[in-house]
Structure to design on (114 residues):
């Protein structure tokens, strides 16, 4: 018995009908390991002020001379952003009262910010 194959324009005998399917399989093979990889857990350092932003990915440890404004400046974020990430400071009035405590860790970048 003799079998034959038709060689189409792509030269591999499969024809162009399989090309879209092969591309889909290729994408799945490339993307699957990325989707299956678990995210690295973020460890919140201690001591830290409560409540802290729940998905913080970058922290800064305050030194004795730090204020809310210096924390914001050193980490290139707005003062309002710093306050919203670290509600335990007590808002702007808490910043004026000196509620930044040396040795404590503050959230300076939440997950999702550039």
């Amino acid at each position: 018995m003799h079998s034959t194959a038709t060689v189409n324009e792509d030269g591999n005998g499969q024809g162009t009908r399989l090309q879209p399917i092969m591309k889909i399989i290729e994408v799945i093979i490339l993307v699957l390991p990325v989707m299956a990889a678990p995210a690295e857990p973020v460890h919140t350092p201690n001591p830290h002020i409560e409540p802290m932003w729940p998905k913080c990915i970058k922290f800064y440890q305050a030194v004795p001379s730090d204020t809310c404004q210096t924390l914001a400046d050193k980490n290139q974020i707005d003062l309002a952003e710093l306050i919203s990430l670290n509600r335990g400071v007590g808002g702007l009035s808490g910043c004026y009262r000196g509620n930044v405590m040396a040795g404590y860790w503050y959230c300076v970048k939440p997950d999702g910010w550039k």
